[in-house]
Each structure stands twice: as C-alpha cells, then as structure tokens.
Amino acid sequence: MKQEKLTTRSENYSEWYNQVILRAELADYAPVRGCMVVRPYGWALWENIQSQLDARFKATGHVNAAFPLLIPMSFLEKEKQHVEGFAPELAVVTHGGGQELEEPLVVRPTSETIIGHMYAKWIKSYRDLPVLINQWGNVVRWEMRTRLFLRTLEFFWQEGHTAHATYEEAEEETMRMINIYADFAHNEAAVPVIPGRKSESEKFAGALRSYTIEAMMGDKKALQSGTSHNLAQNFSTAFDIKFSDENNELQYAWTTSWGVSTRFIGAIIMTHGDDQGLVFPPRIAPIQIVIIPIFRSDDEKALVMPIVEQLQKDLTQFRIKVDDRTEVTPGFKFNDWEMRGVPLRLEIGPKDVEKQHMMAARRDIPGREGKTTMSFENNTEQISALLDDIQSALLAKAIAFRDDNIHDPADYNEMKSVVESGWAYSFWCGDAACEEKIKEDTKATIRCIPFDQSKEHGQCIVCGKDAEEKAYISRAY
Amino acid sequence: MKQEKLTTRSENYSEWYNQVILRAELADYAPVRGCMVVRPYGWALWENIQSQLDARFKATGHVNAAFPLLIPMSFLEKEKQHVEGFAPELAVVTHGGGQELEEPLVVRPTSETIIGHMYAKWIKSYRDLPVLINQWGNVVRWEMRTRLFLRTLEFFWQEGHTAHATYEEAEEETMRMINIYADFAHNEAAVPVIPGRKSESEKFAGALRSYTIEAMMGDKKALQSGTSHNLAQNFSTAFDIKFSDENNELQYAWTTSWGVSTRFIGAIIMTHGDDQGLVFPPRIAPIQIVIIPIFRSDDEKALVMPIVEQLQKDLTQFRIKVDDRTEVTPGFKFNDWEMRGVPLRLEIGPKDVEKQHMMAARRDIPGREGKTTMSFENNTEQISALLDDIQSALLAKAIAFRDDNIHDPADYNEMKSVVESGWAYSFWCGDAACEEKIKEDTKATIRCIPFDQSKEHGQCIVCGKDAEEKAYISRAY
C-alpha cells in the first residue's frame, strides 16, 4: 500500500481540506452534484457531536420530534422575507406515485413554516407554552458552489423551534441556545468561537435578530458555525400561532429557531488540522486511542498480543481501536492514524513488554516531544489525564492562533490589508452602506457584533462617524 | 378540561388506533396527504427503540453512516425487479434552484441503489470486506392508503446494508439481523414476533430471499414488523461491486439489507393497547413512572411535595414524570396517564405520608388488583422489580393472546373461516397458485414460513398435494 503525502496547508489550503476528508474517509462525493456521503468515521464524529448537543438541549427542557420532509410550496410564501431568502435554493417535488401533483412540494430547506403550521394547531393556551422542540434531520438547499461539510445540497443538522408567551422569554431562549452552542464548541470541540449578533443584512430570512458563533479557520477565514434566531412574531403572524393569555385574550406567540449542522465538522477540521492531517479533540474524537502492536515474529507476537488484549479490556471506558493489520508496517500505521486525527497512539513492542511499559504518542505534539513512556499500571488514570491535557492544549493553541490573527486596524486602508489574512475587530456605525462598501472592496463581511465588548464609543472604520459597537470583519466560508 | 372516552377496540379497532395516537400525542397528521408529524412523546419512544437496536447493531460490528436523500432516477432502473417494485411509489424532484433538472432525482424509497454505487467505489479487495453499514434516516414512498405509523408517505427507519465475500457470510448476516430484530421485539418491546421466510411473491423487490418478523395485533391481523434480505449478487451485478479475492480474481460481492421502521410503533400500540389507551412495556416506555401528588390545601401540599421531590431525586435511574398540574384533578391525571400508557403510577397524598408509604398502580392490571402500597424505603429496588414484572407480564399476555389465536384448520374451508379472526398455521406446497387462491378467497396472505418448525410432511391446505413446510396465513396490515 502506498501512502501519498498530503498537500500542505500553505501549498493549497482548500486542496488540503478536500484531501484529508477523502483520505481519512470522513466523507465522499455522492453521484448527485453537491451531495455528500458521510462515511462511518465522519458519522461517528457527528454522533459524538449530536450526543453532546442533545444532552445540553434536554438538560434545558427541550424534547425531540420529527416534522415532515415535504412542505407545500404555498407555506413558504406565507412569510415574505423567508420565501425571498429561500426561493432560489429550493428542490421541488412535482410528481408523486406517477402523477403530477396539484401543488408542488418543496424538500425542506429549513422547517419554520411546517412547524409553524403545526404549532398553530397545538397551541391554544398560555398553559401550552413554552413549546421547546428540537429536530435532528436532513435538509436540502440547492447551492451552486459546494464543499464537503461546509456547503452541500443536502446536509444534516438539528433545528430547534420554540414558542413563548412573551418577547422576553423568546429573547432569553435565543441567547440561551447561542450560549449552549458556544459552550459546546469551546468545551467539547475545542473550537474557540466568538458569539455575537449578525448584522441586518446577514440575519436569517424572516428573523428579527440572528445570533451566531464565528470560528477562525486555519487559513484565517471565518466560519459561521451555528446560529440562533429570535423570530419575534413574524412566523406566528404568518401561521396564526395564537394563544389565550391569563386574561383570556388572544395573543400571537413569540418564536425562535436555532441550528448547528454537519458544517461544524468543517470547523473542527480547519481549526485543528495540520500538515499531517486531521487532529481531533479527545472529547469528540470517533477514536480516542489507537493501539499499535509491534512484532516481527510469532515469538514476539506471543509476547505482545496478550498485553494488547489486556489493555483493550482495561480501557473500555475510552473509544479505542487496535490496529492489527498484517499487510502494512507499523510505520504506515503511525502515519495513517496521524492523518486520521486520533489524539493518542499507544505502541507496544517486545522491548516495551520487557520493560513493562508502552510508548504513548500525542497527536497534537509531533515527533519525540509528544512521546512518553507509560507503565502498564494505573493506565486508565494516566490516559484520562493525558487526554484531558490534549484537549486543553488544543483549545489553548486555537485561542492563541485566533487572537494572534485578530487585528485592530488604525484606518480603513489598514483594515483592507488586514482582512486579506486575518480578522479585523473595528468600530462600525451600523450603516448598511458601510457594510456593503467593505464587502465590495475586500470580499470580507461583518461576521458578528460580539456580545462581549466594552461600552466605549469610537469611529466607524469605514465612514469615520460615531460608532457604538465593534464588529469582527473577515472573509468567510 | 373534558376527557372524552375512547372508542373501544371492539366498537371500531381502527378508530381506536387513530384516537389513541392523536390523544396520547404520539403523532399528528401533516398538511401533506399521508405524511405524519411524530410528536415528542412518540419520538421519545422511537429514540428508545433506536438506542436498543443501535446497541445491538454496534455489538455485532456494524457502524452508522449517512447516504444521500436524492438518487438519480437512472440508478433505480439498474436492477429490474427493484425498479418494478418501487417505480409506482416514487416522489420525484424535477426542479432545483429554479431550473429544471437534466435528470430527475427520486427521493429515496430505500437506499440499495445509491449505497451499491458507493460500495462499488469503496470495495476493491477481500480485505475491505465485510462492509457492515447501517443508516438511520427517512424515506418516502408514495402510498395511496396511509395510516399513522403503519404506512405513511415519509417514514423513519434504519436500513442496514452489508457486503460480503461469500454467499454463506451474506446468508449468515441476513439471519443474524432477523434474529436481532426478534430478540429486540421480544425482550425490549414485549412483542412476541414470529421470525420466518417470506414467500417468493412477498419478498423484497430485488432480493433472493427475504426474512421477516410477524406480529399479531389486538384485532388478530398480522403486522410485518421488520425484514432482512439476502440480495445475493443481484445488486452487486447491477452496480458493479467487485473485489479481488485472495487469489487475485475479481468476484462480485454478496450483499444484504435489513430494516425496522416507525411502523414498529404501530406494532407496540396494537400488541399492548387496551380500551383505556396505550400500554407501554417499561423497557421502551418514554415515561416509565408518573408520580401524582394529591393534596387539597396548602397544608397538605406542604406535607406531600417534599416527599415527591425526594422521590424524584431517588428515582433518577428511571424515566420519570411528576404531574404537578393544578388545573386538573388527580382523577383526570390517572385517566390521562393510563391513556398515555405509562407502566407505573405512584400516588402520594397526605394519608400516605402519614403511613410512610405510597400507592403504586400498574398500568397492565386495571383496578384494585393492580394496586399495592409501597414503603418509602428501598423504593428503587421495589420499583425495578415491579417494572420487570410488568415487562414479563406484558410479554406473557401477548404470547398467550397470539397462541390462542393461531389455529390449525383441518381443511381449506375451515382455514377460510379461521383467518376471518385469527391466523392459520397450515401446510403449504410452495406453489404460487395456491398462495394466490388464498388471497383471492380470503384476503389473507402467507405471512411467513417460520424458521422454527418440525420436519414433518403434510398436505397443502389448498391443493392437498405433499407439502414440506407450514406457513402462517392471515390478514395483515
């Protein structure tokens, strides 16, 4: 078996990205343009993401349900901004059971409309509120330029849809969920996202306000990695979601929606990956530990394998893989599992057995520096500690990289050069004209107005007028 | 709040079925004909089914992945029987992104074709085999007559797709999976299915052989509750799934597919439900225990609620719900949770607190007989034992009902009357003409030829010729 070298990130970042995904077997191209197959290794990563997010949703009172894939075309037309936003991206079913349909059905691009329709049926009284439902599923958006995980015709996600009695509760929910996303990203995926508000031009079609978590990729572009929308009464008015309040008066409900998709896998790849391939944070890695038995004869095998088998039994609390392939060399296996991003490798050869230890190699620290010997005793504690350390190190490294590449340009000219390779963090007056000018001049966009900022005033980086808030500006996926 | 009485099963079984689903909020009708919304209570049941099945799949070496929703029409046409079987049921996407597509795409009715296409790309050598992949997802079949859970345009399921080096391995896998389904059905859902082989006319479109688990519903009709197909080399030939064997010769792979869907929820409802509503086996019940605090004054509340809160803390190992609604009476709550099928109800009022016990009411035994007092001490053990007992009792009851309604008719005339309300277990010569005659005369079909049968010969119940095998014959959903 030959092991081709990956294109390096500096040679061609986008080629590196595609190569690691295909070679590590995270995903593959489907026969329909722009669609992907998520392969078992990629899906195991998604399952880990799902279980971490799902636990957070359930702990905050949310429940899961399943709404239909097919939505009558007329539903989308009920909310004006919504249909304008999604009409160009729709996949349309015109025939069913051999007959042309009376009304075409769209394959859901998102489910606000169909869920709004059901909520109108279910919600009668303030006692029915809040409704806190999430759905794990697939959606289709007819994108023109696609990239594995980042932008595909069909993608997988969760979409939460909630209804509340008051504006305040809906706003609180919208904030709660973006904070849950940020917490998940930091603590599980070691992706140091910045949460903030989207500008008016970047908000969700039909939302009053959209919040986002923005992550910096290895090429210093931004990736929107999750969003939470306060829909105010826009959808409840369009779909007639009304409840009688405590005074028996009819009110429109206040709704929200929020989602994280398989795009987040792209964020993980491009936050942590290096020229050897993927690097997965232990808490979400599909495989946390790979064990490589090393032997050249049957005698050596008889020495090594019982130890490996015992280890496998001892380490069941971890997601573990023993690579016992005989058709490739240990060296091949080292490279292979490095490329696949497994956080920790344990090597055991006959000499290690003699010395009653094994070699532990960290994925995040290349070469000798990342290697330590580890005794066979108390290994679960040692390994737990090591995995925790890898997790923290990855987060610290990503934070340092992000902060090193956020700049505070003195003027518009400096900003223009800064966003060619990094983010600008600058005052913005809030004017759409200034936002548009940035886009035209630099291809960078306003990624978010972060929640966490001081209350000083300053001058808009574009027009120089008084500005109350700073925004992150960068090129983005 | 009013509490309408359910239609009884004997009055109108099908009306009873729809009512329990809608009132218990398991599912609702979607705005598109034949589609359903699975509501949170129903989805929680499905999640429990998923986690039990998924654990069994993973324990037998299977991994999950996700294949695309949209399949080129031409793919379906590659396997002749397959396209004949599915062509009448397809939903077709003809437009995407505002343009008419060059080739129409079908919304997957099942994924053998697209997965076959990918396997052809991935499988090169015998070392790549077996491939053991499962997918949890949604599919669409344009059914004319639909029923909630039993037959809907869109439904949710898992579909396993495996590829093997030999016929024997594929056959072993096909059997392994039908046995896993049977084990799950018996031990988790308390649904005493009968596993067996489908007749040639009832097998999956494109399969060499199909295995099934058949369950008897409360109206004595059969429900096919899961299937496993040996696809031989039919799909590998159509999709060119070839591998080089140990002698470096190219061979077509042997493939299988197997699935259980949200239809299984129908099986659970109609196996255990009674005139009070749903009855869920504890091991898969969305809520295992409901606690009803009973008080009429603030003083009584102050006595009762601390005990209830303590219980809630003690019983976290169970799926538990405290019904603290104030707008309805305890009596209303009893009926409500009985209707929703919660296996165990705990009632705690001021007198119970005085006596340091609570009332435990089993859902499976109505009235006083199902009630016992339970001390506050060691309650997790007591409750575990009680839930286990309920689980076993439900299975025993379902087995007794099934066996009481399986008949051994002496001749064809008796068979005809037997299948009006029950199953016949009779010799069948294997001839399609006899099978067809049964269908025409009685609307009953051959449900399966069970694996577990003695090797005697007998006379075909239709034509009287020598027959080697017995089959279950009944009307079915």
Description:
The structure is a homodimer of 477-residue chains. The first copy, chain A, has 477 residues and is of the alpha+beta class. Chain A folds into three domains: 13-272, BirA Bifunctional Protein, domain 2 (2-Layer Sandwich), CATH 3.30.930.10; 289-402, Anticodon-binding domain (Rossmann fold), CATH 3.40.50; 406-474, 2-Layer Sandwich (Translation Initiation Factor IF3), CATH 3.30.110. Chain A contains 14 helices and 25 strands. Chain A has helices spanning 13-23, 40-59, 73-76, 80-86, 112-122, 167-187, 234-239, 263-272, 298-314, 330-339, 350-355, 379-404, 412-418, 432-442, and strands at 27-29, 36-38, 63-64, 70-72, 91-96, 99-107, 131-140, 154-164, 194-197, 209-216, 222-232, 242-244, 250-252, 254-261, 289-293, 320-322, 344-348, 357-362, 371-375, 406-407, 423-428, 445-450, 458-459, 466-467, 469-474. An eleven-stranded mixed sheet of chain A has the order 3-7-8-14-11-10-9-22-25-21-20, sandwiched between helices. In chain A, strand 10 (209-216) and strand 11 form a beta hairpin. The model of chain A has no long low-confidence stretch (mean pLDDT 96). Chains A and B meet through strand 2, helix 2, strand 3, strand 4 and strand 5 of A and strand 2, helix 2, strand 3, strand 4 and strand 5 of B.
Protein topology:
The structure is a homodimer of 477-residue chains.
Chain A: H1 13-23, E1 27-29, E2 36-38, H2 40-59, E3 63-64, E4 70-72, H3 73-76, H4 80-86, E5 91-96, E6 99-107, H5 112-122, E7 131-140, E8 154-164, H6 167-187, E9 194-197, E10 209-216, E11 222-232, H7 234-239, E12 242-244, E13 250-252, E14 254-261, H8 263-272, E15 289-293, H9 298-314, E16 320-322, H10 330-339, E17 344-348, H11 350-355, E18 357-362, E19 371-375, H12 379-404, E20 406-407, H13 412-418, E21 423-428, H14 432-442, E22 445-450, E23 458-459, E24 466-467, E25 469-474
Parallel strand pairs in A: 3-7, 15-16, 15-17, 20-21
Antiparallel strand pairs in A: 1-2, 4-6, 5-6, 7-8, 8-14, 9-10, 9-22, 10-11, 11-14, 12-13, 17-18, 18-19, 21-25, 22-25, 23-24
Helix pairs in contact in A: 2-6
